[in-house]
Design brief:
This protein is an all-alpha fold and about 190 residues long. It is built from six helices and two strands, in the order αααααββα. Helix 2 (about 15-40) packs antiparallel against helix 4 and helix 5 (about 85-115) runs antiparallel to helix 6 (about 140-170). The structure holds protoporphyrin IX containing FE.
Length: about 190
């Protein structure tokens, strides 16, 4: 059984680490951003500002990781999808992955433009700020804010569909798609 499990075609270890690290960062940053926008106001004794700063310090790391990840993906092909998947489903899976990559780039970039145009820095892990590429400008904030918020909401929806698709592969189709993103088991 263990041998069979370990013979499943998998993403490389680096691709799997990047996937789960970025999934964790994305979900945590998304939840903090959503909470600060929907459930906090600036009247909370300054805590909203601290929560948004936390959101930015976590989310900004995605910009660096996504560059490494896209490079890794181009140089290390993904395992083939199961043969019993229809060509249409295979196309949809590839399309969804491209969309996720695009959102991993656009959501943090739109956040940077929003923050800079509002006159705030974009800090990374409380270590340094990304150099400011956009000057403070209220007319930019007017579109950058809704663009960031709607892109983030859309990305949340795409991630939920992605998660449900992974679970469907595992529990309904009973194929190796979810396992291809999980670690191998140690041989006993
Ligand atoms: C939270 C639960 C998640 C689960 C269970 C999950 C599961 C998976 C699985 C099984 C694959 C391989 C699919 C295949 O080869 O067809 C995959 C690929 C991928 N996932 Fe996730 N994922 C999750 C979260 C996320 C998040 C939050 C993101 C980004 C926002 C993400 C982005 C991607 C991308 C871009 C790929 C394509 C990898 C490639 O082929 O280069 N995933 N995921």
């Amino acid at each position: 059984m263990t041998n069979q499990y370990n013979h499943i075609p998998r993403y490389t270890t680096t691709a799997r680490i990047l996937h789960w690290l970025m999934a964790a960062i994305f979900i945590v940053a998304w939840l903090i951003g959503f909470y600060s926008t929907e459930f906090m106001s600036y009247g909370d004794g300054g805590s909203r500002g601290a929560v948004i700063t936390l959101h930015k310090n976590i989310a900004s790391t995605i910009l660096f990781l996504v560059v490494i990840r896209i490079f890794w993906r181009y140089t290390h092909p993904a395992p083939a999808l199961p043969e019993n998947m229809s060509p249409l489903m295979q196309k949809m899976a590839h399309g969804a992955h491209h969309l996720l990559y695009l959102l991993l780039v656009l959501v943090p970039i739109s956040g940077c433009v929003f923050s800079w145009s509002a006159g705030h820095p974009v800090p990374v892990l409380y270590l340094f700020n990304i150099p400011q590429l956009v000057q403070a400008n209220p007319s930019i904030v007017a579109w950058a804010r809704p663009v960031h918020e709607w892109l983030a909401l859309f990305a949340g929806l795409v991630v939920v569909v992605h998660l449900l698709a992974a679970l469907k592969h595992h529990f309904i189709d009973k194929d190796s798609v979810l396992l291809s993103m999980l670690p191998e088991r140690k041989q006993r």
